[in-house]
Write a structure and sequence with these properties.
Blueprint: E1 7-11, H1 15-25, E2 30-34, H2 37-46, E3 51-54, H3 63-72, E4 81-85, H4 90-98, E5 103-106, H5 111-153, E6 163-168, E7 176-182, E8 186-194, H6 199-202, H7 205-217, H8 222-236, E9 243-251, E10 256-262, E11 267-271, E12 274-279, E13 299-302, E14 308-312, H9 328-342, H10 349-357, E15 366-372
Parallel strand pairs: 1-2, 1-3, 3-4, 4-5
Antiparallel strand pairs: 6-15, 7-8, 8-9, 9-10, 10-13, 11-12, 11-14, 14-15
C-alpha cells in the first residue's frame, strides 16, 4: 500500500551523516538512504522520489554529476534536488544552483533550517505538479471545445463555385470567417474577422454561420440577413467581442454586385487585369450596437465576365517583418496584380507572406477570397 508520506532519497557516502538524516526525517517522511551517486541514479529509475538530499563529495560520481544527469533526463528533471554538503565556497553553491538544484545547505546545518527547507520545497513541488495537472486538464478541455467549434463551422452549405480562397489561422480555431451561399438567382458571400484570434474569437463563428445559411436557404435578402446577424451578435456576445465583416451580393442574372463593408479592409475590384475600384469600410463592425441606422450598400458595381473581386482580413496587410515593417496595401496590390495577370490561385500569396514575416511568423489570422465573375 502506498504511503501518504512524501518520499525522500538521501545520498551521502558518510555513515554518520546518513544516521543523522535518518534520525531527523524517518518519522515524518518515507526515507531511503543511499551511499553513492550511482545508487541514486539507479534508484530513481525504479521509483521517483518527491525530493533528493544530495551530498557533493562522493567517490566515483560526485553530487554535481548526479544532479546534471537528473536534469538531462526529462523523466527526472522535475525532482527537487537539495545539496547538503560541507563545501562552503560561494562558487560551489553557484555551480550547484546552475546545475538545477533548488537549494544549497552547508554542513553543519541547523535541524530546524533543514526541516523548514524540506517542507518548503516539497510544498513548491506539489504546487507545480498540481498546476501542471490543472493545465493539462485545461488543454484537454480546450481541444474538446475547439473540435466542437470546428465541427459546428464545417457547414455543408458552403458553395465554392467561382471563388478561390486562403485561410491560415494562427491557432487551430480561427477568428476569421468565410461563408458562401447560393439562392435562386443570387450568390451571397461573407468574409468576417472577429476581434482577436483563437478560441474566444472563434466562438461567434457557429452562430453567424448557422444564421447566414439558414436565411440564405430561405431566399432572404442579404440586407435582411445583415440586420439579423448584427442583432444576434449584439444580444449574445460579450460587449468586447464583435465582428468586422464584408458582404457581397452578386445578382448573377443582371451581373450586379452590392457590397457592404463593416469595418473590414477595402474590397479590391479588378477589371481588364487592372485595379479598377476599391470599396472601403463605410460602417462600424457588427455587434457593437443593437441596430444599424444605415443599411445602404457601401458600393454597387456593374460587373462583367473576367472581373475579379478580392476581399481579405487585416491579418494580411498587418503582417510584420522581423524589422517591424508591415506588409501593407501596396505590397498586397502588387501581388494581386501578379495573381490576376498570371491567373494564379489566391493561395500563391501565402509563400510571399511567409517569406516577408520570416522567423517572426504570422501574428494574426489570414483570410483571403477571390471572386471571379
Amino acid at each position: 500500500m502506498m504511503s501518504d508520506q512524501a518520499y525522500i532519497l538521501a545520498v551521502d557516502d558518510e555513515p554518520i551523516n546518513r544516521f543523522v538524516i535518518e534520525d531527523l526525517l524517518d518519522e515524518t517522511y518515507e526515507l531511503t538512504l543511499l551511499e553513492s551517486g550511482q545508487a541514486c541514479i539507479e534508484s530513481v529509475q525504479q521509483r521517483k522520489p518527491d525530493l533528493i538530499l544530495l551530498d557533493i563529495n562522493m567517490p566515483t560520481m560526485d553530487g554535481y554529476e548526479v544532479c546534471r544527469l537528473l536534469q538531462e533526463n526529462p523523466d527526472t528533471q522535475d525532482i527537487p534536488v537539495v545539496f547538503l554538503t560541507a563545501k562552503i565556497q560561494v562558487s560551489d553553491e553557484q555551480k550547484g544552483l546552475e546545475l538545477g538544484a533548488v537549494d544549497y545547505i552547508t554542513k553543519p546545518f541547523s535541524e530546524a533550517l533543514l526541516l523548514a527547507r524540506i517542507k518548503t520545497h516539497l510544498s513548491l513541488s506539489l504546487s507545480k505538479k498540481m498546476l501542471a495537472q490543472h493545465n493539462a486538464e485545461l488543454q484537454k478541455e480546450r481541444a474538446y471545445i475547439e473540435r466542437i467549434i470546428l465541427n459546428m463551422r464545417d457547414d455543408a452549405d458552403f458553395v465554392d463555385e467561382s471563388i478561390c480562397y486562403l485561410m491560415t489561422p494562427v491557432e487551430e480555431t480561427n477568428g476569421d470567417l468565410l461563408l458562401s451561399a447560393k439562392t435562386s438567382d443570387h450568390r451571397y458571400f461573407l468574409i468576417g474577422d472577429f476581434t482577436g484570434h483563437g478560441l474566444a474569437s472563434a466562438m461567434g463563428g457557429p452562430l453567424v454561420s448557422a444564421l447566414f445559411y439558414m436565411l440564405a436557404n430561405e431566399d432572404q435578402p442579404l440586407k435582411h440577413i445583415i440586420h439579423i446577424l448584427n442583432k444576434e451578435l449584439y444580444k449574445k456576445l460579450p460587449k468586447d467581442l464583435f465582428m468586422a465583416a464584408l458582404f457581397i451580393d452578386w445578382d448573377t442574372q443582371n451581373q450586379q454586385v452590392k457590397v457592404w463593408n463593416f469595418g473590414m479592409s477595402e474590397l479590391l475590384y479588378y477589371r481588364n487585369r487592372t485595379l479598377y475600384q476599391s470599396v472601403p469600410s463605410s460602417c462600424f463592425a457588427l455587434g457593437i450596437t443593437d441596430t444599424l441606422s444605415d443599411l445602404n450598400p457601401s458600393a454597387s458595381l456593374n460587373v462583367q465576365s473576367g472581373d475579379h473581386l478580392f476581399a481579405y482580413s487585416d491579418g494580411v496587410i498587418e503582417a510584420c517583418s522581423e524589422q517591424g515593417e508591415r506588409f501593407g496595401s501596396q505590397r498586397l496590390i502588387a501581388e494581386l496584380d501578379n495573381i490576376v495577370a498570371k491567373n494564379l490561385p489566391i493561395a500563391a500569396i501565402y509563400p510571399v507572406l511567409k517569406t516577408f514575416v520570416a522567423g517572426k511568423g504570422l501574428q494574426d489570422d489570414v483570410t483571403m477570397m477571390n471572386l471571379k465573375i
